Amino acid sequence: MIPSLQDLFNILPPVIIGAGILIALTLEMFVKPAKKIIPHFAFLVFLFTAYYSLMTMDKETYSLNTLMSGGGLTNILYFIFTFGSAIVVLISYDFIRKKDIVSSEYYILLMSAVLGMMIMASAKDFLMVFLGLEQMSVCFYILAGINRRNLLSNEASLKYFLLGAFATGFIVYGIAFIYGASGSLSYLVITNAIVTGQNITFLTIGLLLFIIGFSFKIAAFPFHMWVPDVYQGAPTTVSAFMSTTGKTAAFAVLIALLLPLFTVGNYQIFGPVLSLLAALSMIYGSIVAIAQKDIKRMLAYSSIAHAGYMLIGIAAGIPAGSAGVIYYLLAYTFMNIGAFGIVAYLEGVEETNLHIEDYAGLANQKPVLAALLSLFMFALAGIPPLAGFFGKYYVFVAAIKAGLVWLALVGIVSSAISVYFYLRLVVYMYFRENSKTITVFDSSYSMLGIIIAALLVIIVGVFPNTVVELITHFIS
Amino acid sequence: MIEQYIPLFLVLATAVLIAVGIVASSTLIGPQRPNDEKKSTYESGVKPFGSAKERISIKYYVVAMLFIIFDLEVIFVYPWAVQFKSLYSVFGIPVFTTMLVFLVIFEIGYLYAYKKGGFNWE
Fold this sequence. Notes:
The complex is a heterodimer.
Chain A: H1 5-10, H2 12-30, H3 34-55, E1 61-63, E2 68-70, H4 73-99, H5 103-122, H6 126-144, H7 151-182, H8 187-196, H9 200-218, H10 226-233, H11 236-262, H12 270-290, H13 295-316, H14 319-346, H15 362-365, H16 367-381, H17 387-401, H18 405-431, H19 444-462, H20 464-475
Antiparallel strand pairs in A: 1-2
Chain B: H1 6-29, H2 36-39, H3 58-82, H4 84-91, H5 94-115
């Protein structure tokens, strides 16, 4: 089949990003001041794509013979990826100059990873999922090691690459099983195959392997081992990018694939598996984060816990749960990028100012940053009326509706535990004396990005119904 | 059904028995007089020298990556070229332009490698 222009038009947001990558590469080759132009160019491309995705949300279409979908839910996910990345560009601008990282390639890799995520989010076929996943992951491996003079960054890159490749092996093996059992790679055909019950054993094995592989990507316990080391070693802005948009893309695939399967009667295998993963991730992430003294490691463990909360929404197996997960992802993207953005702002040229003791007395030295970081910590802990609270609220309610009361209870207990380590940072900033003042490089771009993230955390938290109704409208 | 395979299992079992039996009997019955020369690692061949941890020039990797890229390009272009006439009669001009877009994307990658000194062996 030859793709027509209409096909490309139906999936215009990824096409725009793809064209942006090519233009940026050409600029980098032929224009002398490309280093100065490309960050601005990447920011505008992301912003325009985010705007375009929101504007064309009503037209739900398929493209390339149902390989990909456009409009509707896909465009909401596009918005999360591109707007999140736009903020990442803002917080990166001065950070990578401070760290002396090759600059043009950094932004081109960001765009390339976003293209991969968009392919994943719009895929309705396992081959497209794999294509997008690999494009995203390879860019992540390079980005994690892009601070190449730093040993920790190299270690993070190699570790992420080896474990990521291992996880991809699971996914491909699962896809092979699914193809062998159903003779197709399309989501629609697979749902039908489960309804008819043909080769159900191999189909289940394939889907379970697929879920295992994706549990690596979303950083759920017990497939989380790479998370702390990679988030700590990678440049802070890259950690912000990977932990939010990458997680969103992997969850998008899980929702698109698994939600239809829950409607098939007599086939209730994934609910218990996902519930178990969710419960273990939440408890493990929240408890181990208490012991962390390094801010980036603490945020990494909190990321594992948040993967658990989000899994509750999928395990519930009802549209309201999945809508809650997407709302949660939207909220999590902005609060985590904001938190990592402040950590990147305060980080020194070397890997300094990352210990929790360094944040003691920050409220006197940098009152605005301390206030904003407290806001993000409150949001991550799930304190109303910020976005994090309603994210948890929607997934817990969905779990109770689906009869998983124990899972909601585990979630509530572990978010109560997590309040301790989030608020400990606030206590350090406001109620501890500074033993020493830390040197901070001021950056107006980073500040702008952090403030935008903070505003979004508040707005999304104050008007949760509007957002959730929009998502629910498209999901069912 | 499964009875057909009994001879096969017998052969397998015999093979395992013989292998285990020979190793076991030679260790149990055979005389054991170890000396330094016997216990050392395999003694023939060239004596090892230097360290295995040598730095390999980055150019090898660049060449390997470029090779894979161009190899893939050829894999896509060959079937297209072979089937071009029959595809053209069905789909018309887009058959040509689609491949052209693919090649343009490719050439940008090639130019990037060139501009960044990927082919520079000095």
